[in-house]
Amino acid sequence: MRGTGITRACASEGPGWLVALKSDARIPAIQRQLRGFDTTMAEVSYRYGEMYFGGVEGNWDYAAHMAMTLERALRLGLERSPSRKPNAENLFLKGPLPQVVDAIQKKDAALFKQRIETMRAACTACHAAENHAFIRIGVPTAKRNPVE
Q1: Which residue, 118, 103, 122, is CA-closest to 55?
Q2: What does the angle CA 39 – CA 83 – CA 50 come to, to the nearest 5 degrees?
Q3: What whole-number distance in Å separates Cα of residue 117 and Cα of residue 9?
Q4: In sequence order, which ranges of 21-95 are alpha helices (DSSP H)?
Q5: Which phi-psi region, left, alpha or beta, contains residue 107 (left: φ > 0; alpha: ψ -120 to 50)?
Q6: Angstrom distance (rounded) from CA 9 to CA 78
Q7: What DSSP designation does 15 have?
Q8: Is domain 37-129 in CATH 1.10.3470, yes or no?
């Protein structure tokens, strides 16, 4: 990034925002940066769409990778928001997601599409159980990543 001023601006900020804080202010600052469960859901949404297109287009390794990282993102978010764990586990992690992963492992496009529909319904049910019934999950319509 030479010549853009971006590197210079970062270097001139000093030791870093977190180190500059008093030690008792660091954990609350990190929590503010990670925010609530909305950041988890943004990542899950991205990975859901990528998993969907990976499966539909027959890029099974990519779909499997996205399923794995979707689950990891959700589980990490649940560590930060443990009150959401019972619904996430019962409505999503213990049923629909493993079933989609099974279809990915079998490389079965018809089964994948069927199980994605079940997973979408489970996502919407989980949102409703968490008092977010206004968030209804649809079928992805646009790829957000140029992976083929």
Answers
A1: 103
A2: 35
A3: 47
A4: 23-34, 37-56, 60-80, 85-88
A5: left
A6: 35
A7: S
A8: no
25/86 Cα distance (integer angstroms): 31
pLDDT in tens, 50-86: 999 999 999 999 999 999 999 999 999 999 899 999 9
Rounded Cα distance, 48 and 140, in Å: 8
> In angstroms, rounded to a whole number, what is the distance separating the alpha carbons of residues 80 and 30?
11
> Minimal CA–CA distance to 143: which of 39, 69, 63?
63
- Measured distance CA(29)–CA(34) in Å, rounded: 9
Q: What are the start-end ranges of the H helices in 81-143?
A: 85-88, 96-106, 109-129
Tell me if 46 sits within 8 A of 80, measured CB to CB.
no
pTM of structure: 0.82
**Residues 97 and 112: beta-carbon distance below 8 Å:** no
